[in-house]
């Protein structure tokens, strides 16, 4: 049987790191109901984003693994997903993971879980990433409510397409989303002439333009997109789309430790 010919630019090799209970749930959701192969701590998911088919190869490692093993896994990864629990006040191992990714300029996403826990604090997770003094956190989703009032997430990049009905549905939280969106635009388009205080100009920014800016900053390790895990309120599709849109393919990874052996 001939091996399937897969273009390198359509491949994403992703290592998911965090507490094993959290990462196992994320991996299970990623491969459930989707075409997949593999077993144990590795799997392959086939996913289509923006009308292009991609192959996502998923590896998983516990944040409790020895530091040397964690550093090696991060250093050779094309991209990392750091799973953060919003209800955990201090996670030294997770901070180490983020710091190692910064040191080696490995592209990363951060997925915040546990948003429905009474002790959940989304802002604390964002501050933890910012305190690493490496990649700037880019919140692409924010929780709609928090703790016992958590009802799902708001996707910031495409939010204006939903504005006619979303303002009524989200209520006062829509103003919060506008502020987070302004912060996102401020960060990724700081060289642009768009006035972040002009709400009309904010609406007119094409989502594709924001995707491109976020991707460029993520590839070079200057930014870390932050997403919310909305289990069981939504599908895993936003995470898969983010993996494809923002994390690099093997041909875009520059670290000499990466070997293209497929």
UniProtKB/TrEMBL annotation:
Record GO biological process: ribosome disassembly; translation
Protein's UniProt keywords contain GTP-binding: yes
Keywords: GTP-binding, Nucleotide-binding, Protein biosynthesis
Domain Tr-type G: 70-248
Gene Ontology MF term list: GTP binding; GTPase activity
Protein origin, superkingdom: Bacteria
Alphabetized InterPro entries for the sequence: P-loop_NTPase, T_Tr_GTP-bd_dom
Keyword GTP-binding applies: yes
Protein known as: Tr-type G domain-containing protein
Source organism per UniProt: Nocardia donostiensis
């Amino acid at each position: 049987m001939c091996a399937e010919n897969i273009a390198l630019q359509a491949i994403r090799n992703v290592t998911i790191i965090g507490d094993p209970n959290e990462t196992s749930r994320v991996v299970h959701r990623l491969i459930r109901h989707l075409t997949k192969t593999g077993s144990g701590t590795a799997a392959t998911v086939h996913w289509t984003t923006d009308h292009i088919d991609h192959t996502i190869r998923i590896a998983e490692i516990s944040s409790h693994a020895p530091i040397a093993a964690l550093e090696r896994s991060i250093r050779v990864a094309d991209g990392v997903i750091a799973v953060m629990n919003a209800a955990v006040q201090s996670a030294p191992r997770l901070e180490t993971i983020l710091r190692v990714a910064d040191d080696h300029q490995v592209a990363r996403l951060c997925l915040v879980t546990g948003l429905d826990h009474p002790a959940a604090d989304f802002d604390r997770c964002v501050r933890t990433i910012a305190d690493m003094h490496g990649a700037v956190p880019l919140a692409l989703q924010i929780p709609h409510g928090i703790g016992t009032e958590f009802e799902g997430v708001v996707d910031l990049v495409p939010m204006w397409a939903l504005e006619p009905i979303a303002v009524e549905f989200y209520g006062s939280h829509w103003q919060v989303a506008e502020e987070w969106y302004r912060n996102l635009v401020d960060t990724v388009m700081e060289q642009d002439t768009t006035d972040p205080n002009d709400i009309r100009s904010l609406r007119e920014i094409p989502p594709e333009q924001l995707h491109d800016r976020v991707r460029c900053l993520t590839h070079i390790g200057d930014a870390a997109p932050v997403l919310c895990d909305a289990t069981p309120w939504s599908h895993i599709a936003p995470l898969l789309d983010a993996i494809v849109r923002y994390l690099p393919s093997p041909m875009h990874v520059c670290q000499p430790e990466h070997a293209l052996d497929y």
